[in-house]
Structures
1.
Amino acid sequence: MPESYVLELKGITKNYFGTTVLKGISLSVKAGEIHALVGENGAGKSTLMNLIFGMPVIHETGGFEGDIFIDGQKVNITSPRQAMELGIGMVHQEFMLLPGFTVTENIKLNRELSKANLVSKTFGSSFETLDYPAMQNDTSLAMKKLGLSIDETSLVAGLPVGYMQFVEIAREIDKKNVRLLVFDEPTAVLTESEAEYLITAMRLLAAQGIAILFITHRLDEVMACSDMITILRDGEMVTSISRSNASLERIAELMVGRKLERAQLPPRAVEPHDQDLILELNNLQVQMPGEQVRNLNLKVRRGEILGIGGLAGQGKIGIANGVMGLYPASGEVYKDQNQIKLNDSKDALQSGMAFVSEDRRGVGLLVDESIALNIVLTSIEAQQKFLQPAVLPGVRLIDKKSVRSYTLKMIKDLDIRCTGPNQPVRRLSGGNQQKVCLARAFTLKPEVLWISEPTRGIDVGAKQLVLDLLVQMNREYGMTIIMTSSELTELRRICDRIALVYKGRVAGILRPDASDLEFGLVMAGKKTAKEVG
Amino acid sequence: METKVLTAKDYLNKEAIRAFFVGFGLPRLIISGFLLILFILAFIMKMDLTILLSDSLVRIGMNGLLVLAMLPTLVTGVGLNFGLPIGFICGLVGGVISMELNLVGFRGLFSAILFSLPLAVITGYLYAALLERVRGQEMMVGTYLGFSVVAGMCIFWLMAPFKNPVMIFAIGGKGLRYTLTLFQHFGKVLNNLLAFSLMGVVIPTGLLLFFAFFCLLAHLFFRTRTGLAMIATGANPLYASSSGINIRAMRYTSIILSNVLAAIGAIVYAQSYGFLQLYTAPLYAAFPAVAAALIGGATLKKATVSQIIVGTILFQTLLTIALPVTQTALRGADISEIARMIISNGMILYALTRAERR
């Protein structure tokens, strides 16, 4: 009975500047069904959601192919407003609430109930009095649907995080015609018990006939509540299965599974081993919002390429940022048995470590400055290189000549496509900007290189080049590389070992040739794998 | 390979020429054009161009350091130093002490600078500590702090125990006068140093050299490790801290430097003017300097020494030329002060609204 579907997608294909991010996705959600959409980071979940919700970014980048049906009617959703009118509600990962407003006011914002008064009769309906009792009534009704009771008149600012999520949901279900609710990783910011509660609330909503599209990468939640499961991988739909036919292992395998193309890497004279450690992290904790690291222990072998993987929000990004002093950290970090001061970038740099940040434009570059300055500035500050004595004793100026010749050499070595050392990095492409970031780090001649998301936002050719470069630095100079990436494929391509982070801890360290199943399970926190050779 | 390098170089040349025009910027092209028209007008109206030019040169040297004081804070991203009166007053205090001691000539000038330096460093530090607490609103807080300090200092000028009879009120024998004449002390010592006349235009060599010397110092400073750290702090604080730079220290340093430059600038200004103006005179000291820096093309994120120099020249010449010309053109009506306000405040408004958009 195709007419009973609330939402149907047929053959959805979406290109972003020539890269296909969604390929022929077809999906259908029945009324009262909880439909889970799972996939790794970058599998296309968010794009699909933006598309359903008519976010402007989709249309600004050239629209999409394929059809969307709501209740069997073909629709063309061009704005979030229209999506709302069609009965689609969205619960965002980040809360869109006004902290200084009460629960009721937040829920009823821009949809207030009001009564006519003297002024409004003269000046129009914008001057009507708010009907608080009626609004509070509606609010408590919506809350009841969620199986929850909170004081409608309390301020949102004082609520626990979990409750804020519920206020968001209440706002959506308070809209009278809502038939489909999209949850975008709703449990990412919740504690375990709050998450459980949310799942219960979702079931309650579904029982009232609302269709739910549940985007997540937490597999246990999927198993706990969903009726149907659709798995995306690299923008393609792998399969749609009902929960009764699915098992945790199978989903994990389907989510990760792809052919491994591990190129033959050059051999080393001595393979890295546990007797020769270069770095030791003990009980590392990093307060990085959204990527918290909790009591993490990790041993890094001299000369290896260590991969750090894991799903978004589990804390893999926080590790490098904490060790390099960019986010508040505590715990102990030893390099060659010497303890490194945390929360002190200078000490980290001077102990022979360098960092290529995942936030290229935010941390990695001075976008309006020249390539040359971008490459040498950190080593001028941290290592006092590229300086020459000036007229006065004790005063040293930047040595423009050696900076220029060094930059020219780096431009040639790393094949940075540019007009010259003085070009501002803003005008470079993403891949070339990344090479500038790498050059900045290499200039420090680090023994340990932390590199996060090295290939994010750069094209395929540049990706390969960056990875090759890392292997080359590792083999030729024995540089120990710790590479954090959301892309398991690239980790498995060049790393010696891959540490998977779950809930701020290392859940397991796997060999790159371990099975897809194993990777999937460890990443989802369903299994801890202890050390491998 | 050979050809590739060649084309890249060619492109660089074209780029360099284009970059020069883009870098010089539309506002500066317009103002330069406007200046040219004013000069032609002045010539047609048979005004004495040599006097106008001499005046312009004096005003450039006289205000230059105050404009240069904007540079350090702009570079580190603290913004324009609207609290310029704070440093300015340190300079005035230095000048007053030097007068009290009856030091004359260059001894008077340099001891005034010497006396003002520790004051400027201390007040600069306190000023920086305040601005650190109000990150993001430095310019507004600076403006009002400047106003408050000027008001507070009015009490100081009245109460301070200065004894030199040429400085204190003739009646009552207590409190400094509104305007102290410097001619017996260090008035115009820099202006007159090596001054010569070229086709009727008087060149205040000493004054201009003094300004040039500080510009050179500033230029060299921004090539040192500390200077580069400041540039990085302003351009991208996260990049800076990931390079091991202490951002807070850089912001403090830049504010103190700016304060010191303002103090020296105030003394140079006073010696060139011939008078020390106390009480509410420093109230609006910041605005012409801010306007000049912005006209020169400095933005809230990036500024260079050359922009400061260009801005000072354009703004001060504009003020010197525009007023007599409009005065002559609109015979009788005294609009000079109004015109000055319109030009300087209009410039600030224009530049600030443009600066954000980049």
Note: Chain A has a mean pLDDT of 84.
2.
Amino acid sequence: MKRELPRIITLVTGIYLALQYFIPHRASAKVYETLNDWLIVIGIFAIVLGILGLARMHIGKVQQRDPNWPYSLTLLVGLFGMIALGFGGQGLGTPFVRAYFSVLNPIQATMFAMLAFYIASAAYRAFRARTALATILLVSAVIVMVGRVPLGELLWPKFQLGSLTVPGAAEISDWMLNVPNLAAKRAIYIGLGLGGAATALKVVLGIEAPHLRG
Amino acid sequence: MRTGRPRRGRRIMLALLTVLTAAVSAADVAPPSGVTAVDTPNDRGNSIDLTWQPSPEDRSPAPGESAAVTVTQYRILRAASLTGTFVEAGTVLPGDTSFTDAGVENGIGYYYRIEAIGSDSSWAQTAPLGPAVARGQWFDTRKSVLLAFVLLYCAVVLYLIQQARSGKELFIRPIPGLAAVDEAIGRATEMGRPILFVPGLGVTGEVATLAAFTMLGRVAKKTAEYQTSVRVPCYDPMVMTIAQDIVKSSYLDAGYPEAYREEDVFFVTQDQFSYVAAVNGMMIRERPATNFYIGKFYAESLILAETGNYAGSIQIAGTDEITQIPFFVAACDYTLIGEELYAASAYLSREAPLLGTLKGQDAGKAAVVVLVVLGTIAATLGINGFVDFFATR
């Protein structure tokens, strides 16, 4: 029963949530909203569990003088420091909000800004023309990049060759994005949709239920 | 007295003139015609759709006709009974010939008048129309084709699962990213370093996260067999509790329950870039031999994968976030593209029911390919009915 009951709940809830998409009636929407509310409540309990686990792990590392214990101490100071500041109010000008905007916000912005450098290093590796496919990728990327910037239109504009209009970088770039690229994306979307549906079916029918293994 | 009579007479004359002017003014603009009021179809209720034919004065004045009266707006008036007071339910601009009244109670009959208001402030109302009753529907008929396709797809998947269970041999094409899982875990064992499994930023209800759970179970079982540790930093605390259960039961299945350490599956934070910083720090400090990125990923995908690449780890990634797939392709050794993400459990376990679902996916894709080809031909030939039948409404 310990294993069967969760499976039955999964089956009933899974079938209801699938059918709910096709039922616009208010009664059905209300059940759906209630289930979502339950999820939020359960999530709050899980956050408590998560924070307790995190704190326990890092307190242990500090106590045992783990090789990286200063990092654990920094985490604990940040965690409990922000909680303590939160008790002093959360309005504008309070220490909590000032700490958020003066410390956390710039750190987050720095992490996000680093993405530019990561893109450059990844692009350097990806665009090396070592094989025919990599060369196609390189040429496509160069055309798309040139076609996306105003300078590209100046360097490579479209022009007339007799009665023939030779497309410029912008037109070729648009075509590459809207035709072959979009076709590939849609193919992936279709695969994801079908794969997602099959996975949901496996979980609902209990053929595969990783979340019920514990 | 002599002076009073003419004054009273003037007042009466003025009043009569005012009334007559109003009557003439009211007649300057004609009301709309052909009014209909019906329950809004395929909705949750509390809504009535109104349509009408525009008033003849609902037009732009012709050149030289600047003094002509035109409609400036329509007022929609509603009453709960034929003899009740009609109150304004809304207004629409000229040219509009429909209105959805979303402020009604279910099960009550409502009566409507549409009032055209002219540019000279004259007005004209239609006769009361009704009763129209709002009700919620139990089936959205616009999704009939989708429902039929879903049911057919489920039937095909279940049939193929039965076929697989009956012992029929099913061919599964090689997927390099999944074939490399054993090699990646073996490498970690040889190097004596941990495996890092990142389940992404998804929550438990997302299919990509369910796929991550499935793969985590298989990876954890193998790491238990190989006596290697697997570290799972979690973004969502509910994901953490489920991941802990999965890893624990995988160690149990492998026959090494004592090797399971709860602190290896832990919650980090629910802040995107703080999570990235924590995971990147682990990669640099602990130098895991293998990194798995399976689940939902956003802007952090490349930061994680590039750091893992710098740390010299073998990297296997899979996500259903299509914009992140190129970043994983550029920075990882193997990337599960599209539905390959959902094939992991079947591929790694080779269990008959799971292989059946995989074949079901292939059958679904084949059906979609056939429909796309037929749709392309039909649209090229101008047969729009075929395309419209499948169009999203």
Note: Chain A touches chain B through 62 residues (CB under 8 Å).
